[in-house]
Write the structure tokens for this entry.
Amino acid sequence: MEVIYPKFGELYPVDFVDSELLEYLKSKGIITTQKLAGENLELVDLSNYCGYLGRNFKKLVIPGKLLPVLGVSEEDSPEKIAEAFNSFFDRFFLWVLKRLAELPLFTLNVASYDAVEDFGRERDIYKFFLLLNLKEELTQAIEVILHRPHRVLDVEEVLKPVSEVCEVDGAILEEALCHPERWVESGGKYLPTELIQPQYIESFDSPENRFVKAFLVEILDFIENWDESLRSLLLEVEDIVSFALNSDIFADLDLQPSPPAYSQVLQKRPGYRELFRFWSLFHSFFIPQWFEGLNIAFSLKSVSTLWEYYVLIKLLDVLKAEFGPYKVVSFGEIKKGRGESYEEITFEFPNGVRFYYQLERKSYSKSTWRSDFFLELNGRKIIFDAKFREFSNNRREVLQNMHYYKDGFCADWAIAITFSLAKVRGILYSPGEFCICKFNLFTQLAEILRFLEYSRYTGVGFLNFKLEV
């Protein structure tokens, strides 16, 4: 295990990064690379990255400023730092996952979102989120099945005395003729003492119930593979699935992993219908495109990627508290060249306030710009850009990017949302005024929004967000 503490301007050879992973991170703008003039050597800038890299993920890239948050220092062993980072990431990821599940934006309706085909292990995140997001529907479906399970009539052939015989046909008589030992003489005639009779038994052993049991076993195995902190989110699902599997309905059944073809029970019967739909979602290779970021964040433990989700949640919280509930008025996938794609989402608040996620527009020079967050507020255009980096060590680069965004979007303000342990909440800069406003840590974000809305100034700046998970 090796720990890398990246600094702005430092470049590293890319040979330790898997080529496919490198291309993905570059396409998403998470890392940048450059080639040395006159040499066939590609170098990578890791100053905007935090997480694992390298083949077999043996290199941990982590900003030095994050170490106090983890409770470690550079003097500690790489193994101890990695252990502290893993624990921190698990809490961070858990917080983001829980909050995303609460947003009305991230509800799973298969027909609502663009999808990508994904055959990798990262689909586990999609399955986990599916269980988390639809756990109430899943629980209700299982309860309905337990209350009104599908039954079938099994027929068994049993021998009964002639006095108890209710049904006689050719097959029964033919069977009796083959067994003369059950015949006796009576009044010069031979009569059977016993005849085969059909006995109808109500049973749960149907293809549909065997399929349901197989799916419930799969869900339980899936949940048990996660660590305790994440399993706790699915405790309700785990309890109802375990209860169902131990019930008289499913306890003695065999497993049938594939659904029975053309089953009317799975298509129409309450409980079974919903569970079959859930199975279809659970096994779909086409997953909503916006899971790609969560996938890469989980597989690499990439704090840099989670930071954008964190900022989105925090900004929506503040805007909702300030302007009232919002609705999602558009959600679409924008496809770019070389397989790149992203989501452009529009949130609308009362009084005409609009908040955009990954808005793309052309500037007056017809060049294309895309911001993380764009706010239209009382005629003011404000850009927020999530950057998981410490401002004081990256001041020139951060503010330079904000100048680019402000000019490209013709915005009033362009502000970076950075991570820091500093005692300053943020600073705004305006032409001719230099530093017009310096916020301390006690300044609420709502107050800053009001300042941006009503002040006559325009400019660039940064705001520090505390990482609270």
User: Anything to note?
Assistant: Residues 120-150+205-284 form one domain. The two ends are 26 Å apart (CA to CA). The CA atoms of residues 348 and 354 lie 5 Å apart. The chain is about 35% helix and 25% strand.
